[in-house]
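User: Could you check the structure of this?
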Amino acid sequence: MKNPYLELYKKENGFRVYIVDGAYIRKNLNDQFTNFGQHYRFPKMIPTKEIWIDKDYGNPNEYKYFIAHSIKEWELMRKGKDYDTAIAEADELEHGLRNKDEDNQYKIKQLDEIDGLSIWLVDGKKIRDDCFIDFTEGGHDLVYDWIPENEVWIDNSVSAKERAYIIAHEVKERQKMEKGEKYKQAHNEASFFERHLRHKLPNIGRINAKKSRHHTKKSNIMRDRSEATLSNIK
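Assistant: Sure, the predicted structure tokens are below.
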């Protein structure tokens, strides 16, 4: 019988990860083998500390997810968890890793941190291309479920002198929603607050842009003085 191994891909955490001939395995060894597998899922076929990845399903950019998933599955099943439980938990782990990597593709740099919220400048065009065509100016996790928890994203299409006002809007809106207000009401209140800032503090945007041009530390402009303290927005 043919050897299903094609190459040793890597060694990780005590496991040997092999690229294998999945079509051959499904025809001759086990038709339930799909894109990857580990010993406790296929105990009669895969040795104890090995992970197999099908050459036809394994995009090299995905190998790290398959490996992390397999190790999690292996650890849980070794402790006595059934396969359905193990795969559900491993799926959750893999999903989280994929989301984290995807989020990082959109992020350009962190602008600030306000009341436990991370404020990120993101690639607005890429977001519109990939996941939501109507993303404009900014957003946060309580409106968009694809933004990570406790994060506010600001579209890089917004000019530097405008960002302070958009940040103020998004933080205000999120604070209202966190207290139980519906989006429409929170958005309207945040819009009123934004307009108020634009008229009362017309220079903060220009100061923010000037600081950006001189490569200063991340802007704390909305907290620098009592007249513009985002961290005290309620």
